[in-house]
Amino acid sequence: DGGITQSPKYLFRKEGQNVTLSCEQNLNHDAMYWYRQDPGQGLRLIYYSQIVNDFQKGDIAEGYSVSREKKESFPLTVTSAQKNPTAFYLCASSRISGNEQFFGPGTRLTVL
Amino acid sequence: GIQVEQSPPDLILQEGANSTLRCNFSDSVNNLQWFHQNPWGQLINLFYIPSGTKQNGRLSATTVATERYSLLYISSSQTTDSGVYFCAVNTGNQFYFGTGTSLTVIP
Q1: Quick one: closest CA in B to A88, which residue?
Q2: CA distance B91 to B32
Q3: What backbone phi and psi angles, to 5 degrees, belong to B28?
Q4: Which tens digits make up the pLDDT trace of A33-67?
Q5: For residue B40, how many other CB atoms are within 10 A of its CB?
Q6: Mutate to test the interface with A, among B5, B32, B36, B93 (most CBs of A within 10 A)
Q7: Which residues pair with A88 in a beta bridge?
Q8: Of B107, B106, B103, whose CA–CA distance to B39 is shortest?
C-alpha cells in the first residue's frame, strides 16, 4: 500500500526534553512538509523539503529542526527551545514542491 | 504571506440538506486544495482545483482564480460529512491554510 506513515500516534514528554517525530512515505515523492495544528486552528507550516539533503524554514520554524537524508524520510525534532510544543503534528508529501499534497495520520504531542 | 479566509466558520445542517462553503484568498495562487478533516484528525483530499469546476459524487468545487475565491458544494449531506473542511492555497513552494469550516450534520 502506498502512503504516508507517522509514528507514534500519541507522544508524551516532559518539559525540557527533545523529541523526534517520524514521517515516512513510499509514494516516491520529492517534496515533504511538516505542519502544526492547534485546537480550532488551521495548519501552519514548520519546515518543508523539496529534495533530498535540502530543506527550508516555514512560518513557524523556531524551536524545531529537521533532516532529509533519504527521499522517503523526513523526521522532525521538537527541541526544548520550542516554547509551546503541545500540538497536533502533520506530515505531508507531494510529487514535486507545490503539487497536490497528501497527509499522514498525524502525531499528537503533549508536553507535561 | 497570503491570507486565506473561509466562511462560514461553523455550519449545522439537517441530513439531506445542501451547503456551500467559501474560500477567499488575498493574492494570485498556483494551486488550491480542499480537504476534509475527520474526527480522528486525518486530512482527506477532496479536490485539487487551481481553476475550473470538478465533481466527485455529492461534492463539487469551483475555483475562480481571477476573482480569488473557491467554493465547495455538498449536496444531500450525510452524518459522515461532519468534520472540518479546509482550503489550502499554494503560491510557490508553500501552502497556506484557512482556519476551516466546522460542519455538523444532524440526523
Answers
A1: B41
A2: 9
A3: -65, 145
A4: 999 999 888 999 999 999 999 999 999 999 999 99
A5: 9
A6: B93
A7: A37, A108
A8: B103
